[in-house]
Specification:
The protein is mostly beta strands. 7% of the residues lie in helices and 38% in strands.
Length: 326
């Protein structure tokens, strides 16, 4: 019964990705080729809605977007897919592997036929486990196969978050471990002969004594964009930072992406579409109420608007970061 209720709730959430007009649903377009000079809501009323959206990935063929949608308190979170066929985007659908557990943070690999993600589903046959671990699923036809967990070199009884895979197959992710640098760190596990080796924290140019999390690494591992909270130049509740490698292949000191990208609210979950030359990220920024709320209708309108302080996904041209892909 709990499963059925959750499915019905999330079906409603997905349907609200379309705007009701005169008894029907008007589908809004998604533009992967727009390159806004400042952060703009992405997929308004389709991907970004009045619910909580965070972390997204675009398939290498750019014909599918997978993102996380949850209720307002994120008690329920699922992976949602929206696909493009013959130039038209369809409606958001919950992935066939999602809807029971907390599933978040997708990342495409293997030309889009493998999807990594994070889930708190039981692992290694232990029904008592509810920590977050990294899983993957392979595409079989139009569906996804039963998820497979990474081995215990990666997944521990503590939490592992936000997988990002480079062209070499190396895995970057977030965790808190005894060999870390700060309160939460970004780790890398090298793929050697098809097996992930023991993860190591990235250097102090990236990890600090504060919180570093949710990193997206470029395919060639020459850029990394991540979130951090607690630094002296933090503009709010967490900002996006970037580090580049120098000519010798060493990570340079990371820098805040600045007020043109970051806000005084939490900004996190970066993803870069290299073909579209866009940075996508999640933000809890909202629109300030600049007048007195005089009645319940006005309060309801504020609550129902998209930028209501819950997570939304934003799009901005990568060129605005003043970087050149190496």
């Amino acid at each position: 019964m709990k499963y059925i209720k959750l499915q019905l709730l999330l079906l409603l959430i997905c349907q609200l990705g379309c705007h009701s007009v005169k008894g029907g649903f008007e589908k809004y377009s998604i533009d992967l080729d727009a390159t806004p000079k400042s952060p703009q809501l992405f997929g308004k009323n389709v991907i970004s809605t009045q619910f909580y959206e965070r972390d997204m990935a675009i398939s290498p063929k750019r014909d599918e977007i997978v993102f996380t949608r949850g209720d307002h308190k994120q008690n329920y979170r699922v992976l949602v897919s929206i696909k493009r066929s013959k130039g038209q985007w369809g409606k958001p659908e919950i992935l066939n592997i999602s809807g029971v557990y907390q599933d978040i943070e997708p990342f495409f690999a293997n030309n889009g036929d493998r999807l990594y993600f994070v889930s708190n589903r039981p692992i290694y046959g232990d029904s008592t486990r509810s920590d977050y671990n990294i899983w993957y699923t392979d595409r079989i036809g139009s569906a996804w196969a039963d998820p497979v967990s990474l081995d215990s070199a990666i997944n521990t009884p503590d939490d592992e978050f936000y997988p990002s895979i480079s062209s070499k197959g190396n895995l970057f992710f977030t965790a808190t471990r005894v060999n870390g640098v700060g309160k939460e760190d970004i780790f890398v596990s090298e793929l050697v002969d098809g097996k992930y080796h023991s993860p190591e924290p990235l250097p102090v140019e990236i990890n600090t004594s504060f919180y570093e999390f949710n990193a997206f690494v470029s395919p060639n591992e020459d850029y990394i964009i991540f979130s951090s909270y607690g630094r002296g130049d933090d503009l709010g509740r967490g900002d996006l930072y970037i580090s580049e490698k120098d000519s010798s292949g060493e990570w340079m000191e990371s820098r805040n992406l600045g007020s043109e990208i970051n806000s005084s609210y939490l900004d996190f979950c970066p993803f870069v579409d290299w073909e579209g030359r866009n940075l996508y990220f999640t933000s809890e920024r909202g629109i300030a109420v600049d007048s007195e709320i005089k009645n319940m209708e006005e309060l309801q309108r504020i609550f129902n608007r998209i930028e209501n302080g819950f997570g939304n996904i934003y799009q901005v041209s990568f060129e605005e970061l003043n970087l050149v892909e190496k």
